[in-house]
Design goal:
With 316 residues, this protein is mainly alpha-helical. It contains twelve helices and no strands. It is a multi-pass membrane protein.
Length: 316
C-alpha cells in the first residue's frame, strides 16, 4: 500500500527540494568569501616577503650586515627569537593551566569570575607598557637571581657572566611569559569547562579524589585545547616587538642568556626598519620572511598535535 512506511520511504527521494532562502545564500557566500579572502591575504603576504627578500638572499655575502652573508646575519636573530619564545612558553604554560583549573574547578563562582576577569584584563595591556615595566621594575630585581645562576651554573654556556643592568634575553623571556599567560589561561579555562559532567561524576563515583578526577578526566579531555592555547601564546611571543625591543640592550651576539646583546627578529626589524633603505631594507624583509616561515611551522605543528590528541581525549 502506498500509505505504508516503505511506500513513504520510496517516494521521499522524489520530493522537490525546499528552495534556499535568500539569507542562507547570502550567509553562505559571505562565509566562502571570507575564507577565500584570508587565503589570498596570506598568499599576498608570503609573495611580498619572498619578492622583496630576493636581493638580500642573492647579494654578495660581504654586502650583508656583518660581512658574512645573510645566514650568519639572521641565525643569531633566530636564536634569540626561538629561545625567548620557548622559555616564555615553558614558564607560562604550567602557571596558566593551574590558574585555569583554579577558576574552573576549585574557586567559588564569584571568586573564579573575578580572577577570570583580571586574567582577561591582563591581555588588554599594551605591549609597550609591559616593556617599560620589565625595564624599570622587573630587570633590576632579577639581578640577584642572575648572580646566583652565574655563581652556581656558570659552567653552562647559557649562564655565563651576568649583566648588571638585567637587560638580558632571560628577562625578556620572563616578560613574554607574563604577556602570553592570559591567552593560554583563557583557552584552557574554556576547554576545561567543556569537560562532560558525566566523565567527572563517573571518576568521583569510582572513589577518585578531586585531583585524581581532574588528572583522569579533565586534563585528558582538555589537552588539545591546552596545546592550542600554548601554540597561540607561542605565536604571540614569536611576533612580539616593542616589549622585547625596550628590554634588550644593544651589543654583540652571545649564547649567554644572562648577558646583554642578544636580539630577536621582531625587535631587529622594529629598531631598524624606519631608517632602512636599499639592501638593508631587503635584509630586514628577508628576516621577516624567516619569522613568517617559523610562525607558519609552529601553527602547522600545533594543528598536527591537536589532531592527534583529539582522537585520544574524547573531544572529537
Amino acid at each position: 500500500m502506498s500509505s505504508s512506511p516503505a511506500g513513504r520511504t520510496a517516494s521521499a527521494p522524489g520530493r522537490p527540494r525546499a528552495p534556499r532562502r535568500p539569507g542562507d545564500v547570502v550567509f553562505s557566500g559571505a562565509s566562502l568569501g571570507s575564507a577565500v579572502l584570508i587565503l589570498l591575504t596570506l598568499a599576498g603576504v608570503a609573495f611580498f616577503l619572498a619578492k622583496e627578500a630576493v636581493p638580500a638572499l642573492t647579494a654578495d655575502p660581504e654586502e650583508i650586515t656583518g660581512g658574512a652573508g645573510f645566514g650568519a646575519y639572521v641565525l643569531p636573530l633566530v636564536f634569540g627569537t626561538v629561545v625567548s619564545s620557548i622559555l616564555a612558553m615553558v614558564v607560562a604554560t604550567p602557571v596558566a593551566v593551574g590558574i585555569a583549573l583554579f577558576i574552573s574547578h576549585y574557586a567559588p563562582r564569584r571568586i573564579g569570575s573575578a580572577v577570570g576577569f583580571v586574567v582577561d584584563l591582563l591581555a588588554a595591556v599594551p605591549s609597550v607598557v609591559f616593556g617599560m615595566w620589565g625595564l624599570a621594575v622587573f630587570a633590576p630585581r632579577l639581578g640577584p637571581l642572575f648572580g646566583w645562576l652565574e655563581r652556581n651554573l656558570g659552567f653552562v654556556p647559557i649562564f655565563g657572566e651576568a649583566s648588571a643592568t638585567g637587560r638580558t634575553l632571560l628577562t625578556a623571556s620572563l616578560v613574554l611569559a607574563v604577556m602570553i599567560l592570559p591567552i593560554i589561561t583563557s583557552v584552557s579555562r574554556e576547554v576545561f569547562l567543556q569537560t562532560p559532567r558525566l566523565h567527572e561524576e563517573a571518576a568521583l563515583a569510582l572513589g577518585a579524589t578531586k585531583w585524581e578526577m581532574i588528572r583522569t578526566a579533565v586534563l585528558p579531555f582538555g589537552m588539545p585545547g591546552v596545546v592550542g592555547g600554548t601554540m597561540l601564546g607561542l605565536g604571540r611571543a614569536l611576533g612580539e616587538t616593542m616589549a622585547v625591543a625596550i628590554i634588550l640592550a644593544p651589543g654583540a651576539f652571545s649564547w649567554n642568556l644572562l648577558g646583554s646583546g642578544n636580539k630577536t627578529i621582531p625587535s631587529e626589524i622594529a629598531l631598524n626598519f624606519p631608517e632602512a633603505a636599499g639592501l638593508r631594507l631587503s635584509e630586514l624583509i628577508a628576516a621577516g620572511l624567516v619569522l613568517f616561515v617559523i610562525t607558519l611551522a609552529v601553527n602547522l605543528l600545533a594543528r598536527w598535535i591537536v589532531a592527534r590528541r583529539a582522537a585520544f581525549s574524547g573531544a572529537s
